[in-house]
Amino acid sequence: MNTYKWLIRRELWENRAIWIVPAAIGVLLVLAALFGRVEVDAPGAGAPGHGAGALLLFAFGAIFLLVMSAYSAWYLLDSLYAERKDRSILFWKSMPVSDAMTVLSKLATALIVIPLVYFAAADLSTLIIAFIVSLRASSWFGVSLWSPGIWLQLQALWIYLIVTSAIWFLPVAAWLMLVSAWAKRALMLWSILPPLGLVWAERMFFGTNEIGHQLWERLVTGYPEAAFHDFPGALVVAAQTATAAPVDVWKLLAPVDFAASPATWIGAALGAALVAAAIKLRARGIEL
Amino acid sequence: MASLIEVRDLTKKYGSVVALDRVAFAVEPGRIVGLVGPNGAGKTSVMRALLGLAPYEGHVRVLGHEPLHGRATLMREASFIADVAVLPSWLRVDQAIEFVAGVHPHFRRERARALLGKSQIKLTHRIRELSKGMKTQVHLALTMAIDAKLLVLDEPTLGLDLLARRSFYDALVNDYMDDTRTILITTHQVEEVENLLTDVLFIDRGRIVLDSSMEAIARRFFAVAVNADQLQAARALHPFHERRALAKTVLYFENADAGALAAFGAVHTPSVADLFVAKLSGGGA
Lengths: 288, 285
What we know:
Radius of gyration of chain A: 22 Å
Mean pLDDT of chain B: 90
Shape of chain B: globular
Oligomer: heterodimer
CATH superfamily of the largest domain in chain B: P-loop containing nucleotide triphosphate hydrolases
Structural class of chain A: mainly alpha
Order of helices and strands of chain A: HHHHHHHHHHHHHH
Strand content of chain B: 25-35%
CATH topology of the largest domain in chain B: Rossmann fold
Low-confidence stretches of chain A: 44-48
Number of strands of chain B: 13
């Protein structure tokens, strides 16, 4: 366990962007809240909706998530390639650290550490922004930001999203690592073309589009849709209808459906196999 | 006691090219062995197999471990420097020390700091800010601070200037080597290491062509500088190599009668470098 701590620390040393980028986004958003124009139309007359505040907070979270997805993909694609390119693998391999530990530490960094860092940055900056906005904006909106329920829900949503995403995106992450461990050049092409080839082959020979559908679900949807009921649709509706009742995030979570979906576990199993292949490749030392 | 390194039938193929052809040798504890060969002879392939860096065919045991599958365990007791300047450029010197201290059970942090304290390298330096010689110094300090039974050095001074090369080997001999250690060095610059070796392995075109201790070399090989008028007579004793040196010709003999050779001039033990040239260029004449 101690070795994993050092391996993760090593990833943070090497990839300082892991915390610099979310910190920069946070600072930018805070600056925007400080100096930008805050103009919120009360959605209709009547009671102010907690939904509007929640939507704003969730939207901030979404900005972090979007940047994080792009960064994580790049991180994974580089993870086993960089050490081969600069030959530092000859140093890392002189340490009593197995290839499995190394690969798993990088995978854990992408699926758990990076999301936690973004979560912390999003939480902190959202808190500051909510404070600024509530001072500058109309009172009804400010109030809608300070519902303890919303904050608790926000935390729960992040944690839930991190856990389900780790499972849901495991095959994608593992595939990127495999390419990173294997390809000698053109990593981008190698990461994209074989899956596209599979989609094409499936259509060609079986006339079905299950692989394409799964890729679409994971890449274009951008979050584990199966793990939620009607999300983020419910939030938008809540904000627009200015319902007095706060959005109930708990009702959006669908852990049982997620756990019961075969796509979840077939994907996870495929991911595990790809991770095993990446470990094997690193152990056998593919030269650049 | 079993050998520290045990190699039998080690074969390595890259496609149809045979890089190593049934290589066999053993290394005993406490020795400093030079694995010497021209470029492309297979030195690096042997090293990779010993250190678990690449797959191979045959039987290899290092400290009792099968290297490819037991690399992580092996590296608790063995360490290596393969090639120069392989420390990652983004790493800071103090981070390097902390990391190795964190993952290596036999690393002595204070020793690494003390070794670096003698140099101009600061702990806050990043590797990319250091010269090639300094990078090697950092790597050597990290490696020497590990209490390892076996140290493998693969062309550790390639591309370094004379001063850096000399201080590398001085540090190795003065601050590291004792009778609990075993060192295996590959190099094609044999002059540089010849004085610290206890054993040599010559490798050529994927085969071991000489496997001997330095003492055995002194007993087994002789060189005599012969005048032109005695050349025919001396050749009758079957030298395996000859080399012209000014007016004389140096003849190299294996397992010859030193007494008989003395008739032609002063008999001496050839240097490893000369022996290397003699062995690898074959018959000569």
